[in-house]
Design goal:
The protein is α/β, with parallel strands linked by helices. The protein has one domain (3-191): Uracil-DNA Glycosylase, subunit E. It has ten helices and six strands. The protein has helices at residues 3-20, 24-29, 53-58, 65-76, 102-119, 129-135, 141-144, 162-167, 169-179, 182-196, and strands at 37-38, 44-48, 85-88, 123-127, 149-151, 154-159. A six-stranded mixed β-sheet has the order 1-3-2-4-6-5, with helices on both faces. The longest helix has 18 residues, at 3-20. The protein is globular, with a radius of gyration of 16 Å. The two termini are 19 Å apart.
Length: 197
């Protein structure tokens, strides 16, 4: 699928969320839908939980302090925001930045899965436990962070949320260490795919 086709399909999916009126209660308290941002041909899709205040105002995920830290970590593995795709499970900011509710995550999950089907990433990096538990419900992030997991043919890499590292210095280094594994994991997947094709 060409870049234009993928971008067009993503735009159609965004329009469908609006047309379907997904979680209108949440939409009513948010400024706008925060769909996703980045390269539709990315090898890596990062998934957070829900937009925060800055994201809600600008319509772009991960642009606050956590996003700045994410950009710094991308630079450590030779990548920029334009090389990746980034989104959240829930596409509207929950009031007062509260955690997204289980039913909110459930309502948006089919659209998130459709996003992934369009992009076809090599790896999905989940940021934080909410994101990880949508795909790997029985795991604890404290035990599996930085360990790639294959589920239904897709490889996931659970990481702590960058926001958590901003408040906890020790976690910051853990996140940087886990992040540094991403290129090797992608190479491993691509090598394995080459051998099986």
């Amino acid at each position: 699928m060409s870049s234009d086709d993928k971008q067009k399909k993503l735009e159609e999916l965004k329009a469908k969320i609006l047309a379907d009126g997904v979680y209108t209660d949440l939409a009513a308290t948010a400024t706008q839908l925060v769909f996703g941002d980045g390269n539709p041909h990315a090898d890596i899709v990062f998934i957070g939980e829900a937009p925060g205040k800055n994201e809600d105002l600008q319509g772009i995920p991960f642009i606050g302090a956590a996003g700045k830290f994410l950009n710094e970590m991308l630079a450590t593995i030779g990548l920029k925001r334009e090389d990746i795709y980034i989104t959240n499970i829930v596409k509207y900011r929950p009031p007062n930045n509260r955690d997204p509710l289980p039913e909110e995550k459930e309502a948006f999950l089919p659209y998130l899965q459709a996003q992934l089907e369009i992009i076809q990433p090599t790896i999905v990096v989940t940021l934080g436990r909410h994101s990880m538990n949508c795909f790997l419900p029985d795991l604890q992030i404290s035990k599996v962070h930085g360990q790639p997991k294959r589920y239904k043919g897709q490889v996931y890499l659970p990481l702590f949320h960058p926001a958590a590292a901003l408040y906890n210095g020790g976690m910051r280094q853990t996140l940087i260490d886990d992040f540094s594994k991403i290129p090797a994991v992608i190479n491993m997947i691509k090598t394995a795919n080459t051998l099986t094709n």
